[in-house]
Amino acid sequence: MVLPFEPVPIVDVPDFGNLSAVTVCQQLKIQSQNDKEKLLEAKEKVYLKGFYDGVMLVGEYKGQKVQDVKKHVQKKMIDDNAAVIYMEPEKQVLSRSADECVVALCDQWYLDYGQESWKDMTRKSLQSMEMYSEEVRKNFQATIQWLHEYACSRIYGLGSRVPWDEQWLIESLSDSTIYMAYYTVCHLLHCGTLDGSGKSPINITAKQLTPEVWDYIFFKECKFPKTDIPRSSLNKLKREFEYWYPMDLRTSGKDLVPNHLTYCLFNHCAIWPNEPQKWPRSMRANGHLLLNSEKMSKSTGNFMALYEALDKFSADGTRLTLADSGDTVEDANFMVSSADAGILRLYTFLEWTREMIAIKASLRNGPLNTFTDRVFVNEMYKKIEETDVHYDRMMYKEALRTGFFEYQAARDRYRELSVDGMHHDLVFLFIETQALILSPICQIGRASCRERV
């Protein structure tokens, strides 16, 4: 507070009252402006709850929530010359060249994601999607809620030109939000190359692909365009798109949920507003990758390139360890000790397979009539079903747990409890199914088992 002035209540915030700053300062026992950490905590508490739950106590918007009237109050203050637009970074921002960044006032193209009708359509799209995690779904919901105008262009770097103002480039997070639609037809436009040097299998050149041609391909009700492309060729492209779209799955990092992935939903809804069947069906977000429980960093030496992992652990060992590193949006953890142990497990399994092939003539044959036989068969089928569910959910750590570690443990119990020896058919059923279960993660293991069996 600034003496001799008294604070004036203008917003009532649940739990904090109508003088929320005073209340939180008292709660946190803040003594002065030198209590920086406590002040930052107080700011976060007051700003967040004040925006979402605060209710106006004065003025023409009295009784309404702050989040509902913020834009109206801002506009009125500017119109009355009581305020000006002022922008600055939330905190210090440094460029890759270590220069301090400032906010520049310049012309810019924006996409108005704040339109309620657009937001409602995107929420509808989200409701029908598989997100594989409730946390990810909530992050999308929160982003749709707060997202408003977003600068979608820039004047330097690589990228596509803004079609209505070609001095600008589409910035990277706004670009490529429906590029997957191109995948449905690219095989008919390229001939084994992606640089345009190959000849199209249906004799279409890049210059012929005008916006009107793309409209015809992507929109059901669009009339045939003025073009020298044969109708049969365009209809073939249109059929391919209609057959393969929508996008069944998009996987990406969790850091793109508050921007690029949400823009993807918005833009699909904008382009196909009357065709919900063209909207994305699922998105899977993952965390970042730690190395030995620490953030990877070249400066600290805690870093491993992909080729180094392949040289050290092999493709199978690397893939097995990555699968076992984590499933959720929490950061995965690649442990070198786990990689070593995983390689040993794979080697042991392949050596045991070789041993079973060598002694298969001595394995028990006949009916599967012992109790241990029936238990082992039941355990295998149970673990196969559980693993199938985990694979469908893309929970690879869980799939590895039930389909490899617990599957191997079931084999070990069967081997220990089989007084009359293991049955030939069950041994080779186990080898075959184990190789198949591991095949999405370790292809070489499957190939090795098949060759040896």
Written account of the structure:
There is one protein chain. The protein is mostly helical and 453 residues long. The protein is 47% helix and 7% strand. It has helices spanning 20-27, 36-53, 66-79, 116-127, 134-146, 180-183, 211-218, 231-244, 260-271, 306-323, 336-358, 371-392, 396-417, 424-438, 443-452, and strands spanning 11-12, 55-56, 110-112, 149-151, 153-154, 169-170, 250-253, 283-286, 289-291, 294-295, 332-334. The model has no long low-confidence stretch (mean pLDDT 91).
Notable traits:
mainly alpha; 453 residues; two-stranded antiparallel sheet
Quick recap:
This protein is mainly alpha-helical and 453 residues long.
